[in-house]
């Protein structure tokens, strides 16, 4: 009997009677991270890392919830559970489940590239590793965030007479950009309301980032010339953009690796910056865990499945409700 | 390559004309002439030599890296472009330069174009070629490899028009853009001398064989101009042939197509006729196939194209003709700035001495004073009977300009022919449409022994907006019957209204008919597949359009 299996409600561990990132309300949920397809409202009780808890409360409101330290073992049902850093966003965790002789690790979403806004990924040895596969194609290869941030900074500085708007995921990506940019400047960055609240939660946890100000707090005569503005993708081509005169726009996402994807969406400039593991990182991680069996949850699972099988691993798929796109496309 | 790569990235990252011109100016200010001359030729699409095919690049890559074939194909299916797929895989394999903000020496563009790429193209041994390619790739980062691959395969494109390149050169060097445009017509060598000649501010004598840049028309669309006055406009039929210029200078004749290809040798009978023009004459007109004084469909003209030697049989079966529109040079003088009314008079004079059944002057159609736009529409509706694809409107007072300008020339094409057809196959597109099913095959019903079958009759790629493309893509993925390689056969459920410009019989197509410029006009969600048109309807359409087209030569 498999320690974790897919049910209509989500990934279920019967021995511990709890769910990992369930997509429907359940009695007990262990949350890997606070992106909306992983942390959903309505469950009776939530376990999450201390880093995740304030974000979780911000997104889900009043919930029954217990914060845990990274690496702290706690008993759920007949299993021992611990949360280990996934390097994805602030508070993100892999879930390690130990039952008798069997050790499973569920990665949630993760990355290996250095990110100053969250804890680095920890390799956790296991028998069975459940991995995401969002960017599981070998064309995806990330440069360091510092390199990408330098390109972003140069792009911003190249137009001192225009507003520069970067669209990016409001949770995680925006704060990573604000943290990476501290290497090049100390200027104040303007942010959309959706980015602002989450950024303040990051600040409260002592993440070092550029100073920010709400776009709506700017003086009404402020023209945003030469300013950097961070906004969620939903702001692109929305009425919200009207206040910026002749802006240059860019999108920060792993999908920007492919020229066609950027052009299709009508963004002028693309910065390749992802919260997920690229192809090499996925393969490196799977090897490092020492797992004999690998489950893939969401993304380009078919390609990675075949590749790992050809290397002699046992590979299975979990049909989950997590978003394949992982990041807005 | 570094400067050129920066230019490419900037052009690729904007849709604003102004920003594109700025990027081009920045490049031309900094680039050495020897590189700039290559950049001009590449950006204006004049360099399209194919040294190797995409397949060659892919095979070389697989040979040196031992990379799994299927993994390459999966990646390609996602990216939709071999040059880009290879650049990304090389980066992922960490075989090439990674972006680490370090400045590296890089070979200038002209060295790539003049030595490295041609030398690579000469290698016939596959191992030697693969080794050399890897050596070249290793010097570059992923962005530069993409450009190199495009240059090797002759597929370099970026969203910039010749007009913008000329505008940037004109602003940087202070040369009139008309001058640059004229100097750029015809074949050009990538020499420093040539670059200096293009941008020289001295007024220069032009090569004797060179045509003038063509004057073009904007599409009329559904303009509702209340103040439209028929007496201000010359109306002509718009013929579907090859827009051309005839240059009669010194003791030579040259014929140039609008694609700036010299087609003199392709039409020897016309060349012979034009020898009778007075030296110092340049005419603008349409090369067509003319049988018994009547313009024949474009398909007939196609049989004359691309041949270096024209056989006596071809000359007889597809006799060429020329319909003269305009006169640009007369008695050695450039008369493009004179009004069209005056140039038309001179055109008559220029052709007066020639009596050849192959040469015609495009008739000026008249609408009486006081005619309205409705009268114009009714004239347009007679285009097909008159073997034309629509009307041209030229302001009597307009000069012959470089390119197009609102208010001078309009083209007003006939509405397309239409048929409702059923979507039966789909294939993923490339480039911007990679990973989306956007290449569609459509079918019509055919009655056969009491049964109704769907017979494929046209492919179309365009006509849907992005929302519809996404919606249809998702429908296609959920209604696939079978996959044959990249092609999916689909449940025959979706009906589309297709438009096309011409229809003719064809024994190369399963359906027995060929259509010209098919495209999607509407997604007919209101129609069931059974409501789609049949081949019978298509044949009726064919008869109605081309009553005299039976005489098509046997293959």
Description:
The complex is a heterodimer of chains A (329) and B (555). Chain A contains seven helices and 19 strands. With 329 residues, chain A is of the alpha/beta class. The longest helix of chain A has 13 residues, at 145-157. Chain B is α+β, with helices and mostly antiparallel strands and 555 residues long. Chain B contains 19 helices and 20 strands. In chain B, strands 3, 4, 5, 6, 7, 8 and 9 form a seven-stranded mixed sheet that branches. In chain B, strands 12, 13, 14, 15, 16, 17 and 20 form a seven-stranded antiparallel sheet that branches. Chain B has a four-stranded mixed sheet with strand order 1-11-10-2, with no helix packed on it. In chain B, a hairpin with a 2-residue loop joins strand 13 (437-448) and strand 14 (451-460). In chain B, 35% of the residues are buried. Residues 547-555 of chain B have low confidence and may be disordered. Chain A binds chain B through residues 137-141, 143, 147, 150, 248, 257-260, 263-264, 268-270, 278-280, 303, 306-307, 310, and chain B through 12-15, 68, 70-71, 74-75, 78-81, 84-85, 88-89, 91-94, 98-101, 146, 431-436, 466.
């Amino acid at each position: 009997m498999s320690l974790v299996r897919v049910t209509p409600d989500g990934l279920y561990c019967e021995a511990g009677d709890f769910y990992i990132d369930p997509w429907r309300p359940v009695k007990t949920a262990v949350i890997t991270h606070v992106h909306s397809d992983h942390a959903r409202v309505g469950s009776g009780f939530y376990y999450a890392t201390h880093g995740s808890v304030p974000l979780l409360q911000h997104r889900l409101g009043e919930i029954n919830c217990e914060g845990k330290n990274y690496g702290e073992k706690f008993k759920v049902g007949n299993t021992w559970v611990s949360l280990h850093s996934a390097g994805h966003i602030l508070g993100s965790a892999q879930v390690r489940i130990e039952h008798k002789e069997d050790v499973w690790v569920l990665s949630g979403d993760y990355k290996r590239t250095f990110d100053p806004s969250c804890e680095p990924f920890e390799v956790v040895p296991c028998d069975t590793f459940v991995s995401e596969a969002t960017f599981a194609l070998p064309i995806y290869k990330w440069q360091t965030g510092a390199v990408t941030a330098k390109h972003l900074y140069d792009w911003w500085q190249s137009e001192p007479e225009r507003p520069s708007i970067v669209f990016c995921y409001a949770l995680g990506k925006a704060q990573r950009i604000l943290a990476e940019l501290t290497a090049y400047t100390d200027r104040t960055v303007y942010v959309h309301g959706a980015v602002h609240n989450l950024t303040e939660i990051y600040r409260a946890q002592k993440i070092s980032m550029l100073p920010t100000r709400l776009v709506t707090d700017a003086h009404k005569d402020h023209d945003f010339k030469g300013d950097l503005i961070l906004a969620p993708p939903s702001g692109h081509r929305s009425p919200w953009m009207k206040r910026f005169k002749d802006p240059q726009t860019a999108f920060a996402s792993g999908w920007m690796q492919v020229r066609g994807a950027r052009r299709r969406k009508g963004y002028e400039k693309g910065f390749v910056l992802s919260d997920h593991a690229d192809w090499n990182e996925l393969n490196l991680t799977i090897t490092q865990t020492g797992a004999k069996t690998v489950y893939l949850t969401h993304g380009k699972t078919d390609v990675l499945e075949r590749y790992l099988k050809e290397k002699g691993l046992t590979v299975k798929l979990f049909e989950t409700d997590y978003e394949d796109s992982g990041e807005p496309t | 390559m570094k400067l050129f790569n920066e230019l490419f990235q900037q052009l690729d990252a904007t849709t604003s004309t102004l920003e594109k011109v700025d990027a081009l100016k920045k490049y031309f200010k900094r680039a050495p002439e020897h590189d700039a001359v290559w950049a001009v030729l590449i950006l204006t699409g004049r360099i399209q030599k194919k040294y190797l095919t995409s397949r060659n690049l892919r095979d070389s890559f697989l040979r040196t890296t031992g990379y799994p074939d299927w993994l390459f194909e999966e990646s390609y299916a996602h990216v939709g472009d071999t040059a880009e797929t290879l650049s990304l895989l090389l980066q992922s394999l960490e075989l090439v330069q990674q972006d680490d903000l370090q400045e590296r020496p890089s070979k200038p563009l002209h060295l790539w174009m003049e030595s490295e790429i041609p030398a690579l193209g000469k290698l016939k041994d596959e191992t030697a070629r693969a080794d050399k390619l890897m050596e070249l790739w290793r010097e570059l980062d992923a962005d530069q490899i993409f450009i190199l691959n495009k240059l090797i395969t002759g597929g370099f494109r970026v969203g910039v028009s010749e007009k913008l390149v000329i505008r940037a050169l004109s602003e940087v060097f202070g040369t009139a853009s008309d001058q640059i445009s004229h100097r750029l017509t015809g074949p050009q060598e990538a020499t420093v001398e040539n670059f200096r000649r293009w941008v020289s501010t001295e007024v220069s004598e032009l090569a004797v064989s060179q045509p003038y840049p063509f004057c073009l028309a904007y599409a009329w669309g559904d303009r509702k101009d209340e103040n439209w006055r028929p007496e201000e406009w010359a109306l002509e039929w718009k013929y579907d042939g090859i827009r051309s210029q005839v240059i009669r200078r010194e003791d030579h004749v040259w014929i140039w197509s609008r694609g700036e290809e010299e087609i003199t040798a392709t039409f020897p009978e016309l060349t012979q006729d034009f020898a009778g023009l007075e030296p110092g004459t340049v005419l603008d007109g349409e090369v067509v196939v003319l049988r018994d004084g009547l313009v024949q469909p474009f398909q007939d003209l196609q049989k004359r194209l691309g041949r270096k030697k024209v056989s006596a049989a071809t000359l007889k079966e597809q006799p060429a003709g020329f319909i003269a529109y305009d006169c640009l040079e007369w008695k050695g003088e450039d008369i493009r700035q004179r009004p069209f009314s005056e140039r038309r008079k001179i055109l008559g004079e220029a052709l007066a001495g020639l009596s050849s059944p192959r040469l015609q002057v495009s008739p000026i159609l008249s609408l009486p004073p006081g005619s309205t736009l409705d009268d114009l529409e009714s004239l347009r509706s007679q285009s097909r009977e008159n073997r034309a694809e629509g009307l041209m409107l030229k302001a009597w007072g307009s000069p012959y300009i470089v390119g197009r300008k609102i208010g001078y020339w309009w083209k007003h094409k006939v509405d397309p022919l239409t048929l409702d057809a059923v979507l039966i196959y789909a294939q993923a597109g490339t480039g911007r449409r990679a990973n989306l099913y956007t290449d569609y095959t459509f079918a019509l019903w055919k009655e056969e022994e009491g049964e109704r079958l769907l017979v494929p009759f046209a492919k179309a790629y365009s006509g849907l907006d992005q929302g519809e493309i996404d919606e249809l893509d998702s429908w296609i993925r959920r209604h696939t019957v079978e996959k044959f390689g990249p092609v999916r056969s689909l449940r025959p459920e979706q009906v589309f209204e297709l438009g096309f410009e011409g229809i003719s019989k064809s024994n190369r197509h399963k359906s027995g008919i060929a259509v010209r410029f098919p495209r999607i006009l509407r997604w007919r969600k209101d129609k069931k597949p059974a409501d789609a048109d049949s081949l019978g309807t298509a044949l009726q359409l064919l008869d109605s359009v081309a009553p005299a087209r039976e005489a098509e030569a046997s293959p």
